[in-house]
Amino acid sequence: MSKRGFTKCSSGHFRFAVTDKDAKAAAAALTKIEALMQKTESYWTAKKANDGVALTKDARALASEAAAAAAKGSLADAGAGFEKMTAKCNACHELHLEKR
Ligand code: HEC
Predict the structure, then answer these.
(1) What's the mean per-residue pLDDT of the chain?
(2) Which of 29, 31, 73, 94 is the most exposed place for a label (fewest CB within 10 A)?
(3) What domain range is 10 assigned to?
(4) Which residue has the CA at smallest separation from atom 14 of ligand 1?
């Protein structure tokens, strides 16, 4: 995936935004992650990696929920959603899809 730097960047920005209590920046970072997961989903759909596709869908839904919470200024909920989302990201990394 050529967008990995972007992903790293977006999740990093989310963490900074939460530390700074900057709900707008947090919502923006989560929205970027959501869009990225949408692209990731198309990528793995084309490769017919169904387990990976299911995880991108989950990660995208959780990013979207967390973004909505951040947009409402509720950084605690956004942070909780972000942690849940990260579990999905990591679950997919454990699958080692890049070796298929
Ligand atoms: C469909 C499975 C899948 C999901 C879901 C997924 N990733 Fe990944 N991710 C991968 C694969 C496969 C690679 C390795 C790609 C490569 O080497 O080309 C990767 C690589 C990365 C890297 C680069 C790691 C490095 O050391 O260079 C980052 C950062 C990353 N993912 C973050 C995330 C985040 C954040 C999420 C959740 C929002 C996420 N990923 C969700 C499959 C996934």
Answers:
(1) 89
(2) 94
(3) 4-99
(4) 98
pLDDT at 5 > cutoff 60: no
Query: Tell me, what CATH number does 72's domain have?
Result: 1.20.120
Concatenate the DSSP letters of all residues of 32-91 into one string: HHHHHHHHHHHHHHHTT-HHHHHHHHHHHHHHHHHHHHHHTT-HHHHHHHHHHHHHHHHH
- Per-residue tokens: 12: 């990093």
Is the minimum distance from the CB of 18 to ligand 1 under 6 angstroms?
no
User: Which is the closest atom of ligand 1 to the Cα of 1?
Assistant: 18
Q: What is the pLDDT of residues 87-98, one digit of tens each?
A: 999 999 899 888
